[in-house]
């Protein structure tokens, strides 16, 4: 009897190559933000708290760009897997047009709401709110650049281009990381210098992404029909992203009302968690590109095997990050601030940060599997359940009943666990396995 042939699979080397490229791209922005946080943190707790509040608003305004990025990756990957590279890049062209149009509109809206929104987050019209508004009004000018970079990352991941995104993000963020301390301290611009450095990085990256798309020699004209389809696909992702931001804003608002030390510690913790989450998300990016291409090429067996192999790699990475965080519980908070009150609050949230890392390693890999398959409706639903059934109510109750910053982070941990359970069951069910160029 002939032996059964082994199931097809993507080589581990290919998974690691895509993950390494995504790792560099994903790490660059949060690493710059960590540098920025450290630079601003030594100005005092008020500027640091202001940066935290304003940064939360910037993330909210960029929510559509994130939806465009992930929606573009899935569609581009399916076309690429079907052997239609020009169509895959064309998705990037139309996503870039949408990014520019939405970004310019968001700048106008952001300037109008900057003051009221930061005061809602901070809960007062004091020094922290004034610092946040000052930073936000400058930083928001870089929003179209942020969206263009996200759209560029989307199509380049879809066609499995591992080099260009690394080059772009390295140039942009090295330039900006050097500019931040120079503008904050040497030029004497203080917190506003940090905002200018952000804008410099975002527009540098955007121009380099536009240059990359021109090299592909595809039509650059806007296509309303393609943009319309992208907006429809992005609907669930926008709702999902808004659930994330509602959760983060609620948590930041609760921390802000607890005091400047709590909000500053929350800012440090969230920057570290965002860094870890995005680094772990490198396996999700690999899953998006590889699974989208496999499904576009009608290869169910490769899609299925890749899903579980990427998940195992994510678990290993999560355990490593959790160990590093546990080892650095005393030293790391002191890198960002000299304030003992902030250190104390950071130590309260630290156990949650450590525990979430290995769970997040699996969670983000599963996230990438479902993004790559285009299972956006389920991703939206499980995120809404986790956000409004866990994170938001626990954060609010922490403020009402005096649970402090530890209660806010217990809410975040609950959010992570709910999503982990839901997505593990979904991937195991196989209902995400839909073959063809489009879902």
Automatic annotation (TrEMBL):
<feature type="transmembrane region" description="Helical">
    <location>
        <begin position="167"/>
        <end position="189"/>
    </location>
</feature>
<feature type="transmembrane region" description="Helical">
    <location>
        <begin position="51"/>
        <end position="71"/>
    </location>
</feature>
<feature type="transmembrane region" description="Helical">
    <location>
        <begin position="378"/>
        <end position="401"/>
    </location>
</feature>
<dbReference type="InterPro" id="IPR044644">
    <property type="entry name" value="DinF-like"/>
</dbReference>
<keyword id="KW-1133">Transmembrane helix</keyword>
<dbReference type="Pfam" id="PF01554">
    <property type="entry name" value="MatE"/>
</dbReference>
<feature type="transmembrane region" description="Helical">
    <location>
        <begin position="275"/>
        <end position="298"/>
    </location>
</feature>
<feature type="transmembrane region" description="Helical">
    <location>
        <begin position="348"/>
        <end position="366"/>
    </location>
</feature>
<feature type="transmembrane region" description="Helical">
    <location>
        <begin position="92"/>
        <end position="114"/>
    </location>
</feature>
<feature type="transmembrane region" description="Helical">
    <location>
        <begin position="310"/>
        <end position="332"/>
    </location>
</feature>
<keyword id="KW-0472">Membrane</keyword>
<dbReference type="GO" id="GO:0015297">
    <property type="term" value="F:antiporter activity"/>
</dbReference>
<feature type="transmembrane region" description="Helical">
    <location>
        <begin position="134"/>
        <end position="155"/>
    </location>
</feature>
<protein>
    <submittedName>
        <fullName>MATE family efflux transporter</fullName>
    </submittedName>
</protein>
<dbReference type="GO" id="GO:0005886">
    <property type="term" value="C:plasma membrane"/>
</dbReference>
<dbReference type="GO" id="GO:0042910">
    <property type="term" value="F:xenobiotic transmembrane transporter activity"/>
</dbReference>
<keyword id="KW-0812">Transmembrane</keyword>
<comment type="similarity">
    <text>Belongs to the multi antimicrobial extrusion (MATE) (TC 2.A.66.1) family.</text>
</comment>
<feature type="transmembrane region" description="Helical">
    <location>
        <begin position="407"/>
        <end position="425"/>
    </location>
</feature>
<dbReference type="InterPro" id="IPR002528">
    <property type="entry name" value="MATE_fam"/>
</dbReference>
């Amino acid at each position: 009897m002939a032996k059964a042939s082994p199931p097809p699979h993507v080589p581990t080397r290919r998974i690691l190559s895509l993950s390494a490229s995504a790792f560099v791209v994903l790490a660059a922005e949060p690493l710059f933000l960590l540098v920025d946080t450290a630079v601003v943190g030594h100005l005092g707790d008020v500027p640091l708290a202001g940066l935290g509040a304003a940064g939360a608003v910037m993330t909210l305004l960029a929510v559509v760009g994130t939806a465009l990025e992930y929606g573009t990756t899935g569609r581009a990957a399916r076309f690429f897997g079907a052997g239609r590279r020009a169509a895959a890049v064309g998705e990037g062209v139309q996503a870039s047009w949408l990014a520019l149009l939405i970004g310019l509109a968001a700048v106008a809206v952001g300037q109008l709401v900057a003051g009221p929104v930061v005061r809602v987050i901070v809960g007062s019209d004091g020094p922290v709110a004034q610092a946040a508004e000052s930073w936000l009004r400058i930083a928001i000018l870089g929003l179209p650049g942020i969206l263009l970079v996200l759209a560029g990352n989307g199509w380049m991941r879809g066609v499995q281009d591992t080099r260009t995104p690394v080059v772009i993000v390295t140039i942009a963020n090295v330039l900006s990381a050097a500019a931040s301390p120079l503008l904050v301290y040497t030029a004497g611009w203080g917190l506003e210098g940090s905002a200018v450095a952000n804008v410099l990085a975002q527009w540098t990256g955007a121009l380099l992404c536009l240059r990359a798309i021109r090299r592909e020699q595809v039509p650059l004209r806007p296509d309303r029909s393609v943009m319309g389809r992208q907006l429809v696909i992005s609907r669930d992702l926008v709702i999902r992203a808004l659930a994330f931001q509602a959760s983060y804003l609620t948590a930041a608002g609760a921390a802000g009302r607890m005091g400047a030390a709590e909000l500053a510690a929350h800012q440090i913790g969230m920057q570290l968690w965002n860094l870890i989450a995005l680094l772990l998300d490198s396996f999700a990016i690999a899953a998006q590109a590889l699974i989208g291409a496999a499904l576009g090429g009608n290869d169910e067996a490769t899609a299925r095997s890749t899903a579980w192999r990427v998940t195992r790699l994510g678990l290993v990475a999560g355990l490593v990050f959790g160990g590093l965080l546990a080892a650095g519980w005393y030293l790391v908070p002191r890198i960002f601030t000299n304030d003992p009150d902030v250190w104390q609050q950071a130590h309260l949230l630290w156990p949650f940060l450590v525990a979430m890392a290995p769970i997040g390693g699996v969670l983000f890999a599963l996230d990438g599997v479902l993004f790559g398959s285009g299972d956006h409706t389920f991703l939206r639903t499980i995120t809404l359940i986790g956000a409004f059934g866990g994170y938001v109510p626990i954060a609010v109750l922490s403020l009402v009943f005096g649970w402090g910053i530890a209660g806010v982070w217990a809410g975040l941990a609950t959010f992570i666990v709910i999503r982990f359970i839901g997505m593990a069951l979904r991937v195991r069910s196989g209902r995400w396995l839909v073959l063809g160029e489009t879902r």
